[in-house]
Amino acid sequence: MNYPIKLKPVFKEIVWGGNRLKNDYGFESNLNNIAEAWMLCARDDGDNIVENGVFSGKSFKEVVAENKSLLGRKGEKYAEFPLLIKFIDAKSDLSVQVHPDDEYARIHENSYGKTEAWYILDCDEGAQLIYGFKNELSRDEFRKSIEDNTFLENVNKVNVKKGDIFFIKAGTLHAIGGGILLAEVQQNCNTTYRVYDYGRLVNGVPRELHIEKAIDVTDTVPPTDSNEPVCVKSGDGFEFKNLCSCEFFNMDTITVEGNYKISGTDDTFISLLVLNGNGSVSFNGTTVDAKSGDSIFIPAGKGDILISGKMEILSSTL
């Protein structure tokens, strides 16, 4: 059962989404846009289908529920699959929002909290995102800025470029700006508290805001987390970058021109998301083709994982 498992994406149409995921990755959908492609998910509102091997045709959530050992020692403790990994195509600005931490989410939403990280794949010239506040605010000042419509004067707007990394700890105010294509690794939670949505209407009705809960959970000081790679190493035909490490996940990129070998462990599964290029992934005697836009789940277990070809891959583990 331990083999490279290819997963079929789940597509989400949202008011701010575009069609770069159709055009750039060849994803096929009858939706008007693909705002998000959920590349690793095991949820009631989004569940990958396995495309190969003994689990072919099964839902990923079903496979995980019946085979918890695939997650490794770190993953088996979770009642639900711990991560959600996405491509996000923002044609226009996302709402300004915040996510709760585990404690608040457990009490108020009966779910996990949401810490996440972004890797910018491409962006329009001049594209920006919102990342926390410019200066520290009290909660009363935060509330007043929402009430008197001066809120956007206080947020920290950041110009972005391809290759940038952003760590969004639970409680950090944030918004992806229009013209940004990114990959996101996050805790398996879809709880979002919207603070501001630019007055947009969906079917003639404004989307719901969640002001009181947002005020409860938002950290109103400027973010201090580093957004630089933690570790970079390279060798003959490869470059490895640890983009982000936190208590919930590790997010790395692997750039290969030739062959690169990873040692699997019993501690954690490995998610491989092909960002560009093509090649193959081999594990435990099984080889699968890999191309831009493929999501490949490597179950926990000892053994060498061989990545061959010319590819940039986002690798995520617990």
Assign a percent range to the helix content.
10-25%
Q: Tally of extended strands?
A: 24
Q: How many separate helices?
A: 6
Determine the mean pLDDT: 96
**Spans of at least 5 consecutive residues with low confidence:** none
Helix vs. strand class: mainly beta
What does the model show?
The protein is built from six helices and 24 strands. The protein is mostly beta strands and 318 residues long. The longest helix is centred in the middle third of the chain and has 9 residues, at 139-147. β18 and β19 form a beta hairpin. It starts with a strand and ends with a strand. Helix content is 13%, strand content 43%. Strands 1, 6, 18, 19, 20, 21, 22, 23 and 24 form a nine-stranded antiparallel sheet that branches. A six-stranded antiparallel sheet has the order 2-3-7-14-9-12, with no helix packed on it. Strands 11-10-13 form a three-stranded antiparallel sheet, with no helix packed on it. The protein is globular, with a radius of gyration of 20 Å.
What order do the helices and strands come in, and which of them pair?
Layout: E1 5-8, E2 10-12, H1 20-25, E3 36-40, E4 42-43, E5 46-47, E6 49-50, H2 60-66, H3 72-76, E7 83-90, E8 96-98, H4 102-108, E9 116-123, E10 128-133, H5 139-147, E11 155-159, E12 165-168, E13 174-175, E14 180-187, E15 193-196, E16 201-202, E17 205-206, H6 211-217, E18 231-235, E19 238-245, E20 250-264, E21 270-283, E22 286-291, E23 295-298, E24 303-317
Antiparallel strand pairs: 1-6, 1-23, 2-3, 3-7, 4-5, 7-14, 8-15, 9-12, 9-14, 10-11, 10-13, 16-17, 18-19, 19-20, 20-24, 21-22, 21-23, 21-24
